[in-house]
Design a protein that fits this description.
This protein has about 325 residues and is α+β, with helices and mostly antiparallel strands. It is built from eleven helices and ten strands. The strands form two sheets. A six-stranded antiparallel beta sheet has the order 7-6-5-10-9-8. It has a four-stranded mixed beta sheet with strand order 1-3-2-4, with helices on both faces. Helix 2 runs parallel beside helix 7, helix 3 runs parallel beside helix 6 and helix 9 packs across helix 10.
Length: about 325
């Protein structure tokens, strides 16, 4: 039943955005994202923004969405009661929906609101586990409003688990929160530098302090003109052997477009050499940055990366290390 509902919503999305590809075509997602970007670019005043907060404010007004934050069960009850008193019966299930910690937000269409009032939709953000996802949940809910037609049902719940709709919406959310014409101007002053964590934090503080470090970094990399990879490293065994041959191993979490054209390819689950700043950060538990030779990255069957220089900036991130590898 859920799969049928998802496919139905995908067909509605296709019609709403006038996408030519059918929903099972490989290019469907990319065409939806392009159509969504065109819609976002038409929001009046969005090109004059300087920060993500300004973009979200314009997008919220354009898409007629008002955000409510539920940080406790008491908040949920207060929000539910307030809207029920306004005869918005869709809120009757709010407490039940947000009792599930996997539900990030509930987007409801109001039935008793004049067309000239500020908002036709209310997005209730589930922040009972913490406010760290508040920024992303906002742009995600706006993403739903961009890619999907006006709701026929009383509400949509949005869970942390992913299906095709949520994956598409996440991509569109990134286009809203880090709208390219605005974000490119935000990172422009730093393009003469290698991308390190100091630069990332400067951009994040100026553009959107509420965005997560990971979301900000991925968006910077997406717009960075020179070859750079985002690498995550942690202690684990071989891909085929589980706990066998446990070592500090790396996987690529993103790269710039120009990095794809360099011929440098980090093998999945590749062992991190002891000469890398990534290894130093893992041992010392602190940020480390310096130049390394990629040719020292080798595999058990004798393969290695090209013998190219890279400036690497590594930092702890929970149980793992995140690193920015800039090809020189």
């Amino acid at each position: 039943m859920e799969q049928e509902e998802t496919r139905g919503r995908l067909w509605e999305m296709r019609e709403h955005l006038c996408v030519k590809s059918e929903i099972d075509d490989p290019q469907f997602k990319s065409e939806v994202i392009v159509a969504a970007k065109r819609s976002i670019a038409r929001f009046p005043g969005i090109h004059n923004c300087k920060t993500a907060d300004e973009i979200i404010d314009i997008a919220s007004r354009q898409l007629s969405v008002y955000f409510e934050e539920a940080r406790s069960d008491a908040d949920v009850q207060e929000i539910q009661t307030r809207y029920l008193e306004q005869r918005e019966l869709g809120f009757a299930q709010l407490s039940l929906e947000l009792s599930d910690p996997s539900v990030d937000a509930v987007l409801l269409k109001r039935n008793h609101v004049a067309g000239n009032q500020d908002h036709q939709y209310v997005a209730v953000l589930n922040l009972k586990e913490g406010a760290s996802r508040a920024f992303w949940n906002r742009v995600h809910e706006l993403g739903h409003r961009v890619v999907e037609p006006p709701q026929r049902s009383l509400f949509f719940r949005h869970k942390a688990s992913k299906n095709k709709i949520e994956e598409i919406t996440d991509s569109v959310a990134a286009e809203i929160g880090f709208f390219s014409p605005v974000f490119e101007k935000a990172i422009a002053p730093y393009l003469g530098n290698a991308l390190d964590w100091h630069v990332v934090q400067l951009i994040r503080q100026a553009y959107c302090p509420a965005a997560s470090l990971l979301a900000t970094t991925k968006s910077i990399i997406r717009h960075w003109p020179r070859p750079v990879w985002l690498i995550e490293a942690g202690s684990r065994g071989r891909r085929s052997g589980g706990a066998q041959d446990v070592a500090l191993r790396a996987s690529v979490k993103g790269c710039s477009e120009s990095a794809k054209e360099t011929g440098v390819f980090f093998f999945p689950n590749m062992r991190v050499p002891s000469t890398s700043p990534i290894a130093d950060t893992y041992i010392l538990g602190e940020e480390v940055s310096y130049q390394e030779q990629l040719g020292r990255w080798t595999t058990s069957d004798g393969k290695s990366l090209p013998n190219r220089g890279a400036f690497v900036s590594a930092r702890p991130y929970g149980e793992v290390v995140l690193a920015l590898s800039n090809l020189l």
